[in-house]
Amino acid sequence: xxxxxxxxTPNVHMNFDIPTFSLQAIAMRDIEAxxxxxxxxxxxxRSAKERRRQLxxxxxxxxxxxxxxxxxxxxxxxxxxxxxxxxxIMDDVPVIFANLNNRxxxxxxxxxxxxxxxGLDFDQKYINLLMTILHAYKRLNNxxxxxxxxxxxxxxxxxxxxxxx
Length: 165
Fold this sequence. Notes:
- The chain is mainly α and 165 residues long.
- Helices cover 55% and strands 11% of the residues.
- It has 6 helices and 4 strands.
- The chain has a two-stranded parallel sheet with strand order 1-4. A two-stranded antiparallel sheet has the order 2-3.
- Helix 3 packs antiparallel against helix 4 (106-118), helix 4 (106-118) packs antiparallel against helix 5 (124-139) and helix 5 (124-139) runs antiparallel to helix 6 (143-162).
């Protein structure tokens, strides 16, 4: 039997498979041998205070994961605003690409760095951000950066596809 511990920087997603009536832990990132499995019991995209409140009410424990213990106003703000910030970038792609230069990519690269640091670099919105950066570098004809972002996207997408094979 596998044990999944609570963490607000999970490494697995839980899926209930109806045909086999089984609970499946699906890796969201590379997991080393003997590494613990972590699953987020509640909403990831909330402040540490809110995540802890939800867990206390539902499960009667205070989360002690690194994301909660080391939370800062900046990390809370990122979690609360991340999806909206990425959506705004997606909405602004025509404007960004119309005036594209290396400096115009700085807000996207900064957001990517913040997401990775917070351990939220696994979901579809993050992949959309990476793909936008990849296409921007393609339009700028920056082949080394284009390859770097192609490899990042490829790794996430291949890992994601392998989960379902």
